[in-house]
Amino acid sequence: MLTLLKGINQLVYFLVELGMFAALGYVGFHSTTHPYGKYAAAIGLPLVAIVLWGIFAAPKSAYRLEPLYRSVFALTLFGITALLLYKTGNTRLALPFAGVALASELIAFLLKQ
């Protein structure tokens, strides 16, 4: 049973990560009216998040943070994403994203994934 819960949570957590990158691209595109700035932000925001995630949170990273710090790091990125979604007027996306991200991170921390 515990193995099934871990597997389901890993899938949900991965989907939250992908959702974070997509949401950051969306937010970046809608954050400015400058024609080139839209594309720069739409590519730049997710790229920064992907690089930081790859360095500090990826399972096979040489610099992977300890579980407590990794949870704080992940919740910070998820929280920033939810806040940016909220600021662009997407409360219908921001609140569920924040809730699912928080629940998945809590389960991952408790199961020591």
Q: What's the helix and strand layout?
A:
Layout lengths: L1 H29 L4 H22 L10 H21 L3 H20 L3
Helix pairs in contact: 1-2, 1-3, 1-4, 3-4
pLDDT averaged residue by residue: 95
Distance between the termini: 15 Å
Helix content: over 70%
Following the backbone from N to C, one meets helices and strands in this order, namely HHHH
Low-confidence runs of at least 5 consecutive residues:
none
Q: What is the number of E strands?
A: 0
Q: Give Rg in angstroms.
A: 15 Å
The number of helices is 4
Describe the protein in words.
- The protein has 113 residues and is an all-alpha fold.
- It has one domain (2-110).
- It contains 4 helices and no strands.
- It has helices spanning 2-30, 35-56, 67-87, 91-110.
- Helix 1 packs antiparallel against helix 4 (91-110) and helix 3 (67-87) runs antiparallel to helix 4 (91-110).
- It is globular.
- The mean pLDDT is 95.
